[in-house]
Design goal:
The chain is built from 11 helices and 12 strands. With 267 residues, the chain is an alpha+beta fold.
């Protein structure tokens, strides 16, 4: 389709109105514009969120609220979100991170969308505006089912992980600026060396980020030893749906997942 109009609303309500009429919502445009330039955009109108007031990053009382139009660079610059920097600095180039947005990253197909994997591990919630008002939805639901017609993600909220609870590892073909072969992000708490809580998200091993619920179940009540983590990595194979692409085969992704899950906890 040929783009016939680009709307740049100055409020969330105006953005929702444009979206409800069928316009395709665009954050930073790093994915959308590539499709537009290729002539495969699914709509004839775009609505840009860059002036809709959704670019803020706030952290208060251990809770982060990140506007959907906040750039990946802005998130990485916030001192309270420094634990996300290892994930963010592997996403594309600095130029693209200055454009790519938090909201847009939720809708990027795997093996991209590493921030979405992190938000899933954090148990984040999306604030969504639509023709029928506002609602909250878990990031897990948005990643699985998307959002409704005419709806726009306004922000994401997540509790900051306690010290020592955050774990992240990404395997890729290059050290930086490369899509994932396997991404592992986790919030895991221990008491006296024994796991009391585990939420593990995986990227690069399914069409969307997924929870490694089998690995989580296996870890609870056990220590984070090499042997236990190897078991957890093997268990996680039951939670994935790997695919072939230019970066790795489905066979290879499954083969190395247990290794990289262990490395997320024991580098």
């Amino acid at each position: 389709m040929v783009i016939q109009a680009v709307h740049v609303p100055e409020s969330v309500e105006a953005a929702v109105t444009c979206s409800a009429r069928g316009a395709w919502v665009m954050g930073g445009g790093t994915v959308v514009m590539a499709l537009v330039n290729s002539g495969v955009a699914p709509a004839t109108e775009l609505v840009s969120l860059r002036r809709a007031g959704l670019g803020g990053v706030e952290v208060r009382d251990g809770l982060a609220r990140i506007g959907a139009a906040a750039t990946l660079a802005a998130v990485g610059e916030h001192p309270a979100l420094s634990f996300l920097r290892p994930a963010l600095r592997t996403i594309a180039s600095p130029t693209l991170r200055n454009q790519a947005t938090v909201g847009g990253n939720l809708f990027v197909a795997q093996p991209y969308g590493d921030l979405a994997v992190c938000l899933l591990a954090l148990g984040a919630t999306c604030e969504i505006a639509g023709p029928d008002g506002r609602r909250d939805a878990p990031v897990a639901d948005v990643l699985t089912s998307g959002i409704g017609s005419g709806e726009v993600v306004v922000a994401v909220r997540a509790a900051l992980p306690e010290p020592g609870a955050w774990h992240y590892h990404k395997a890729m073909r290059r050290r930086l600026n490369s899509a994932a072969i396997v991404t592992v992000a986790s919030v895991t708490r221990t008491v006296d060396g024994v796991v009391t809580f585990a939420r593990i998200a995986l990227g690069g091993v399914a069409p969307r980020p997924v929870r490694a619920v089998s690995a989580e179940r296996l870890l609870r009540g056990r220590p984070l030893t090499r042997e236990v983590l190897t078991e957890a990595g093997e268990a996680a194979l039951g939670d994935i749906d790997p695919f072939d692409d230019a970066y790795a085969s489905a066979w290879y992704r499954a083969r190395v997942l247990p290794v990289h899950l262990r490395r997320a906890f024991l580098p």
